[in-house]
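User: tokens in, sequence out, please.
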């Protein structure tokens, strides 16, 4: 009961007795994350986030399902996996020492299965670990579009990782990072909607990128904000790296294919396939980045794969 009461404000939970190396690793990582955000006001705002708001439609759908006498595990898992806020919180909890899961979990559906419906029901109905977005009407900004974009990027990133024959963990990281890559936008929109609307107007009027507008107004971009929060919540390094550099992968160059590569390419391709969902000016894939990785010849294949994924979505 004490643990359930504390799941909101606590970023990470370590069981006692705690392995000294684990403790040092967690503290070292927490201190290293400070460099991502220089603005103390933004840092304080982000570090106080207990959960990310969910789409009202999905939030109500989950509440109704959890209170239904014919509750379905499959339905609950599907709803949570569709929502950025719910997925991030459930993954944070299942990978902490709260519930003693020995393996690292990167799939929202698997996380729901491991926690079980009783725990999920308690978290949602009693502890109220999820919350919905307040009615925010921002000119030119659609929350539904952000969710759908993130969902498609997660599917694209996972398919790209699969075709590269990567290990299962890399595929899962690519999927999760794709789903969560824009969480920084949600943090800013939920906490500073007026300022964010001004940013979007600057993007349109001055023909700058959204990242440039964010840095001009807040001094930091949504990529770094999202990476900072997910880092505090204990997400794996490959996920944090993909969030922090999904617009500028050359800033974190690593040899070979990685979740960052998958999310970066998936994000750019999705924007080109659905330009109406883009909140910024379209940019092309940086071929010099792919050339450094020795993967430039893969781009057309990845694009075909993403287009096939869209067709499969339509059929389903």
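Assistant: Sequence out:
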């Amino acid at each position: 009961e004490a643990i359930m009461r504390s799941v909101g404000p606590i970023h990470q939970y370590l069981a006692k007795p705690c392995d000294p190396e684990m403790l040092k690793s967690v503290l070292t990582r927490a201190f290293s994350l400070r460099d991502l955000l220089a603005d103390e006001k933004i840092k304080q705002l982000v570090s106080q986030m207990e959960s990310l708001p969910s789409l009202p439609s999905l939030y109500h759908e989950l509440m109704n399902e959890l209170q239904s006498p014919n509750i379905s595990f499959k339905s609950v898992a599907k709803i949570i996996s569709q929502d950025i806020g719910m997925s991030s919180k459930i993954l944070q909890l299942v990978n902490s020492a709260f519930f003693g899961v020995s393996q690292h979990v990167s799939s929202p559906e698997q996380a729901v299965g491991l926690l079980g419906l009783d725990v999920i029901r308690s978290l949602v109905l009693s502890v109220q670990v999820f919350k919905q977005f307040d009615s925010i009407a921002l000119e030119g900004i659609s929350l539904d579009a952000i969710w759908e974009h993130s969902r498609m990027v997660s599917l694209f990133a996972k398919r790209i990782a699969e075709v590269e024959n990567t290990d299962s963990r890399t595929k899962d990281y690519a999927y999760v990072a794709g789903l969560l890559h824009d969480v920084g936008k949600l943090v800013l929109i939920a906490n500073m909607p007026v300022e964010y609307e001004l940013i979007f107007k600057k993007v349109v009027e001055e023909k700058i990128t959204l990242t440039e507008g964010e840095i001009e107004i807040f001094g930091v971009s949504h990529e770094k904000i999202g990476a900072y929060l997910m880092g505090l919540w204990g997400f794996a390094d490959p996920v944090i790296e993909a969030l922090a550099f999904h617009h500028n992968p050359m800033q974190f160059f690593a040899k070979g294919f990685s979740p960052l590569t998958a999310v970066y390419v998936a994000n750019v391709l999705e924007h080109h396939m659905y330009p109406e969902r883009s909140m910024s000016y379209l940019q092309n894939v940086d071929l010099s980045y792919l050339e450094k990785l020795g993967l430039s010849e893969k781009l057309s294949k990845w694009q075909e794969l993403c287009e096939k994924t869209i067709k499969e979505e339509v059929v389903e």
